[in-house]
Amino acid sequence: MFSKACEYAIRATIFIAARSVEGKRTSLKEISREVDSPVAFTAKTLQKLSKSGIILSTKGAHGGFNIDPTQMSAIKVSQIVMAIDGDMVYKRCSLGLDSCSEDHPCPFHARFKPVRQDLQNIVENTSLLDLTSGLVSGSTFLKV
Amino acid sequence: MFSKACEYAIRATIFIAARSVEGKRTSLKEISREVDSPVAFTAKTLQKLSKSGIILSTKGAHGGFNIDPTQMSAIKVSQIVMAIDGDMVYKRCSLGLDSCSEDHPCPFHARFKPVRQDLQNIVENTSLLDLTSGLVSGSTFLKV
DNA sequence: TGAAATAAGGACATGTTAGTCTTTATTTTT
DNA sequence: AAAAATAAAGACTAACATGTCCTTATTTCA
Question: What are the tens digits of pLDDT across the range A37-66?
Fold first, then answer.
């Protein structure tokens, strides 16, 4: 579904968001520990998120990553996915045909459509805030 | 979503099925031509399908692949997927957590659940016959 | 029986994703 | 100003998915 990089990105972003509501910045080291992801690899994906303007980064001692809390309901999961994987996840033909479309559908097209649509809706309509509140309240988890 | 191998497998199986309703066997060469997939790679996936009992293979001149037409409504897409990719497609946590479950959900779990469920239902309930009829009638396509 | 047509099998090649390591840049603290 | 703590950047490596090639086995046909 999502690439590893994208999974880490979403997990990391949620963690950074949770810290940001407490007014704290989080270091790469802490993120990868709490999100259970490889440090150096996670660094790469965070750089992309930072360049895409989804997270803010600060170098130096007491630096790290954070997110403007007032933005957290505006940031959608789709933005993270787009920054890392692109939108092919929910646009691509399920059977891999380049030319699959409403006019020229693959045999699976019609049946698969609601799944893809649903996925797209969910990803475009759930905000970072939505995902973060459960983590803050302790009802959801980012690692074992 | 599905691996390339699995996409080819589904396309190939539908094509073989369409030929089988006409009482014909199809050679590997013809399959990969009509389904637009690399010959040798497709051979591998067909071997798996054959070993899984989803398709029948016959060696030698006038050999090839076919499917018992009376089985075509019993064979579900999920069987093909299972034979090639396994069932992780619709079982795996969307954020990659090994320990994600109803009791210990990731932040995306609840929202993602209907998508996964839907996908699983569709894949388990659409039969090979379902996918083949459109191809036979000319309303769906397996390549450009 | 020999040749041709096919699938099966295994070794190899290529490409992409995932991941590491090292150096550099920036900021804060002392 | 120097040291420490951090992120950024780029080169490198590893693992896996995708794909090719060659040889072998089986079947049919002339």
Answer: 999 999 999 999 999 999 999 999 999 999
